[in-house]
Amino acid sequence: MAINPPIDATQTPEWAALQQHFDQLQDEGVDLKTWFANDASRVDKLSFDAGDLHFDLSKNLIKPETLALFADLAKAVKLDERTKAMYTGVHINNTEDRAVLHTALRRPAEDEGKFIVDGQDTVKDVREVLSRIYAFADRVRSGEWTGVSGKKITTVVNIGIGGSDLGPVMVYEALKAYADAGISARYISNIDPNDIAEKTKGLDPETTLFIIVSKTFTTLETLTNAREARTWLLKGLKAAGAVDGSDEKNSEAVSKHFVAVSTNLEKVAEFGIDPTNAFGFWNWVGGRYSVDAAVGTSLAVVFGPERFEEFLHGFHAIDEYFATTPFDKNVVVLLGMLNVWYRNFFKAASHAVLPYDQYLHRFPAYLQQLTMESNGKSVRWDGTPVTTETGEIFWGEPGTNGQHAFYQLIHQGTQLIPADFIAFANTPNPTKDGGQDVHELFLGNYLAQTKALAFGKTADEVRAEGTAEEIVPARVFAGNRPTTSVFGDALTPFSLGELIALYEHITFVEGTVWGLDSYDQWGVELGKQLAKQITPAISQDDDALAQQDASTQGLIKFYREHRKF
């Protein structure tokens, strides 16, 4: 099936209507205080529930009638058709001629036979790989799988980069409270030797299992780190007397301490990993959409198959909600349109994600790849230039840490920065400081920040506190700084799956409006190609050095002069 060319959203009557609405709001004056005062039901009209997550959009720079305009624009760009195309395996990633089927990774087993794509029963194949991963995870967790000396595995070390690292490490950190088998995880991604040095520090090679995550088993950073890890393992095992250094014993050790997430079984075997211990995924799973595929093998080991299934159920709940809920009531669609509203009409360049849960401290970093690699594009899916601004710079830090760092800019700076505040009613670690529930103290900050950003503080209010007149301007808060509040019951495998799927689909909605192929990432390729050309010039190849630009030559000469060999 051919991909239809993108609709230029900016040329539709629906975009014009939204522009007119925006202009009217500017003429009236955007004033959240007044809007709340004049509409007692504003919060009800702008609050939604999806799965077990609650969303309050009332502190955004919209009126309830804005939602209908958002829904109209979503219809105008045929979001429903493109969503159906994605879910059914049409090759909407047209620059790579691939289907986009991360939603198939979390479909239930009863969907087997219903989604045949390019001759492949996608759900059946996914469930078969999951069954193999779960069996492996159970063996490691129970102690049936041991290292070469017969000791139980107590640490899994995931070696990958990009989507093969950001997702697993974020989920591991988020769900640490659910680790129940005496197994911890570490994650190596950076080719900087300092990363592997620190991540292997203090580990016992006899109880360490490495998971090498590379679909092609050719990723430069991952394979370099994998070889270093193999050297570290064999050296440590020999020093402990667990192997004698013979090729036979070394080979046995590698097969007991390394598994792979890859489809290139030939290269897996060349490395020394038994191909039966390789778990694959498919070209219709993009790296940044793969944490719920075999890329999450480390998570299945640490948390167990049952928890991993709960994680998948959370994804699927949002997948179904997004696909079946009318646009004007569909909070996933509305949040995507909100981002378009701020990016294209208010010209906001960045978007903050502020989780009030320390376990989510890597969530903003995860979203950076998901959103910026997906929608950081300047051409549409047919190769034509975009017609408006695309993408946002996603960033953030957890909770009160951010308050004492960059909130100043959000509150009183000259840039409009929409922000998502995420929190949960319950914590796995309740505690009290005297009579004060500390989690409630924490949530007090979560609630106070969105209130302060929305409603601010006037000069008269500052004066009423007895502030000296010359200091009054510095203590005024303009307000009308937009926020979305996301509230959940607890951070569980299910709710984390919901959160990830939420942002996956928000990204998709934006990409559809902008006419982007949100599933390729050609922007990462040029630097990789140039690195291969430049690396030989750094230390020994003067001919390669001569081919570089003047700046690169100067930097390499500085390196040669200062490197202590």
Automatic annotation (TrEMBL):
UniProt-listed Gene3D superfamilies: 1.10.1390.10, Glucose-6-phosphate isomerase like protein, domain 1
A GO cellular-component term linked to this record: cytosol
Family in the record: Belongs to the GPI family.
List of catalytic residues: E373 (proton donor), H404, K528
One Gene Ontology term from the biological process aspect of the record: glucose 6-phosphate metabolic process
Functional pathway: Carbohydrate biosynthesis; gluconeogenesis; Carbohydrate degradation; glycolysis; D-glyceraldehyde 3-phosphate and glycerone phosphate from D-glucose: step 2/4
Highest rank taxon of the organism: Bacteria
UniProt-recorded Gene Ontology molecular function terms: carbohydrate derivative binding; glucose-6-phosphate isomerase activity; monosaccharide binding
Keyword Cytoplasm: yes
Enzyme Commission no: 5.3.1.9
The reaction(s) this protein catalyses: alpha-D-glucose 6-phosphate = beta-D-fructose 6-phosphate
Sorted UniProt keywords: Cytoplasm, Gluconeogenesis, Glycolysis, Isomerase
Protein name: Glucose-6-phosphate isomerase
Biological classification of the source: Bacteria, Bacillati, Actinomycetota, Actinomycetes, Bifidobacteriales
Function: Catalyzes the reversible isomerization of glucose-6-phosphate to fructose-6-phosphate.
UniProt-annotated location(s): Cytoplasm
Annotated PANTHER family: GLUCOSE-6-PHOSPHATE ISOMERASE
InterPro entries linked: G6P_Isomerase, G6P_Isomerase_C, Phosphoglucose_isomerase_CS, SIS_dom_sf, SIS_PGI_1, SIS_PGI_2
